[in-house]
Amino acid sequence: xxxxxxxxxxxxxxxxxxxxxxxxxxxxxxxxxxxxxxxxxxxxxxxxxxxxxxxxxxxxxxxxxxxxxxxxxxxxxxxxxxxxxxxxxxxxxxxxxxxxxxxxxxxxxxxxxxxxxxxxxxxxxxxxxxxxxxxxxxxxxxxxxxxxxxxxxxxxxxxxxxxxxxxxxxxxxxxxxxxxxxxxxxxxxxxxxxxxxxxxxxxxxxxxxxxxxxxxxxxxxxxxxxxxxxxxxxxxxxxxxxxxxxxxxxxxxxxxxxxxxxxxxxxxxxxxxxxxxxxxxxxxxxxxxxxxxxxxxxxxxxxxxxxxxxxxxxxxxxxxxxxxxxxxxxxxxxxxxxxx
Length: 340
Hints:
By secondary structure, this protein is α/β, with parallel strands linked by helices. It has 13 helices and 13 strands.
């Protein structure tokens, strides 16, 4: 599991495809992560009518192991999650379990995703998105199913409206996590991007969590840019939903933008670009030459390829994404008029 947010969002897409919830079948989803903040929030991203999303408490574990389930899907290669799957009684298993104390694919369908996690050359050759890979593991055909997240609340939308301009907000999610310094774009580049966006009449707004407070303050001092401050996940999601476009590295904000169907400009350097399913909304911007440190949290060569993504390239991607969104909206309205 790369992040708890990613697993939750992919689960939401498979829920759209499975449709057992429409026949009154209850789905029980337990989300596990080593990150306490992800444990606290991520299950709550799932809509209540899709499944019962629970936290990993002792009571939850007791319930899982005491009941017999129609199926057990463990899409996480983390040893703890695999141990829970191995101890769960079910009629059908998909994904990953434990074998001799180590994570192991349940069947042939899970081998591809397993191999991408242990074999970098094989992973580089992969041409499937993460969503497609997970659908393959579960045995469901992928037909472009979108993420299925719960709707934002009125309170969260009202709070987001207090921070963001109505029609021109470009959300800049400036962090990437302290454990991933190889993915952090330089402050100087954010400053230049902010100036370019303002020059186009757009309103950049800084988004981020506790780890980005210092960087956000530096950017505000240097540019006068708006900053949202540290918000709850509920409000953070509502702000992303309200933005015209999001610029982000591979983070929870990326997944929330995809779930909110907000155009996304994704800064990617160390991952396989084919892994990301943007559903036709936005672009992936990368260094001109592929990264030397594939899937590494730190740069091992001193090249710092994230610095090779220029502010100008990101700015142009934002403008293209906005134009594409406008064309899609115009087409939607035309179709509605013709249907009436």
